[in-house]
Amino acid sequence: MTTDIPTSEQLVERASSLVPVLRKSAQWAEDHRRLSDEVIDALADAGIFRMRVPKRYGGYESDTATLVAVGTELGRGDGAAAWTSSVYWIPTWMVGHFPDPVQEEVFSTPNVRVCGTLSPGGMATPVSGGVRLNGKWAFMSGAHHAHWQEIVAIQAGPDSEPMPIVALVPMTDLQVVDDWFTAGLKGSGSVSTVANDVFIPAERILPLGAIIQGQGASVLNGDVAMYRSPLLPVASASSVGAAVGLARAAVEEFLERLPSRKITYTDYTEQKEAPLTHLQVAEAVTALDEAVFHAQRLSGLVDNKCAAGAEWTLEERVRARADLGAVCRRAKEAVDVLASASGGSSIYLDAPMQRIARDIGAINLHALMNPNTNAELFGRALCGLGPNTQYL
């Protein structure tokens, strides 16, 4: 299968054109705790779900710099839509490490959507030809509209040591549990899924350690640049656009409301005349600029290493995690400043600022994105200590 490959600029333009649709649908997504079918169709039509699919299946093989730029535009429209798209990008990339016949099965679905997690949530018991899977996986963003789920489980048998594995499971084999009642990223539909004695054939199973190291079983993807990287730097670069986009949305929302706002109980009939407002806007935009810097440095590192096919050093892996955390921290700082400057009227549900603040807060609480966790990891390396995680 072949297709015309849009340029990075064209994909960013497509994402930008979706901003009005995403903003219009954001409240529906909040109310229904999932993205609307209209938004999913719009994302599909724009090619968002093809960005990490191999070209031979009609994909674009987009680099992570393009993911950051596209994710930023989507985040300007709706953080939940940007986050869900980012989550789809990561497991879709992981599918490219499976044997080529498995990829043929998964990518035969146009605009295929794969949700997933990196946390073990179940047990896999070896049986003839594969494993039997039982377990539950939470925070499964985009599960409602996914075709497949990438799961992590512990494979354990009477004659082998327990080993974490990655497996691909059709969504039709899983039970979706409607338990996504949250304060932030409500529209992402990050429900839980359950497997009850599901059989998974051996060809749809890989050791987690192999994918973490970027060592797959695909022959045809052996020379494809985007697969020449360990998992965690790719996942880090795939995620940060949503955070940057939310910070940009906060700046746009604040400046749009500014001309019509005063500062109640003061003599300022226009908020824009107050020196405090000048300081707040400058502080927020500077924090946003810093978030953009770290996002671009992260994606540049990933893309340059992929292009060269070079080995990753421990320092580079830790730096990728540090940049991920820095993006999230700086983006939240930008949003927090502008949210606090938006006054009491911004807490109404029809004011986008309150949703932006809750969404960026939720992203910063994510285990992989958490700024403090990533900063600690970076600091350990700077102090000459070994990493306290395998997720590098």
Radius of gyration: 21 Å
Report the count of strand segments.
Answer: 7
Question: Can you tell me the CATH topology of the largest domain?
Answer: Butyryl-CoA Dehydrogenase, subunit A, domain 3
Number of domains: 3
Structural class: alpha+beta
Portion in helices? 40-55%
Question: How would you explain this protein's 3D organization?
Answer:
The structure is a single chain. The protein is of the alpha+beta class. The chain has three domains: 8-110, Acyl-CoA dehydrogenase/oxidase, N-terminal domain (Butyryl-Coa Dehydrogenase, subunit A, domain 1, Orthogonal Bundle), CATH 1.10.540.10; 114-206, Butyryl-CoA Dehydrogenase, subunit A, domain 2 (Beta Barrel); 228-382, Up-down Bundle (Butyryl-CoA Dehydrogenase, subunit A, domain 3), CATH 1.20.140. The chain has helices at residues 8-17, 19-32, 37-45, 64-77, 79-95, 100-107, 208-212, 231-257, 275-308, 314-340, 352-365, 371-382, and strands spanning 114-127, 130-140, 148-157, 160-170, 175-177, 191-201, 205-207. The protein has a seven-stranded mixed sheet. It is globular and about 80 Å long. The two termini are 34 Å apart. The mean pLDDT is 96.
